[in-house]
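Friendly challenge for the regulars: who can give me the C-alpha cells for this chain first? No prize, just bragging rights.
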Amino acid sequence: MLDRENLERQLREQQKQQEEAAKPLRDRLAIVDDLLDDHRGQLARLLDLYLAGSFDKDVLTDRKVRLENTILALERERANLVATLEAQTLSDDDVNALLDHAWSVVQNLARANEDFDERRRIIERFNVWVLLYTEGGQRMVRAWCTIRQEEDMAIEYGRSQPTS
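First reply, four minutes later:
Bragging rights claimed.
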C-alpha cells in the first residue's frame, strides 16, 4: 500500500486476470443478447401477422405464449450473467476507489504508530486473518486481508508461506 504504483499495477493485473476468466460469461451474454433480439423480433412479426389476419388466432396465441416464456427465461439468464460478471470483476472505478482507500489508510499510518485505537481501526478495516497450520511436516502461516471500502466491494489478498 505504501507503493501506490505497485498497488495499482497489481490491481490492474488482477483486473486483467478476472477479465480473461470472465470471457466465457461475456461470450454467453452476447449469445443471450442475440437470442433476445431474435425472439423479440419474432414476437413483433407474429403481432403483425395477427393484425393482418393471416393466421388463425389460436395458432398465433400458442406461439406468442411460447415466445414470451422464452424471452422471460432469456431475460432472467441475462440478469444472472450480468450480476455474476459485476460481482467477479474489478471495474476501473473499483480500482480507483481501492487506490483512494489505500491512500487514505497510508495517510493514517503515521498516527497509528502513536495511537493504539487508530491501529486497531486500521486492522479491523482490513479484516486481517492469520492461520497457523502444519502441512507436510512444515509449519505454515497463511495471512490474508480483505480491503473494504463499502460492504459490496471487497478484494481479498492472501499468501501462505513456511514459518521458522
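Residues 92-162 form one domain. The chain has a mean pLDDT of 82. Your move, everyone else.
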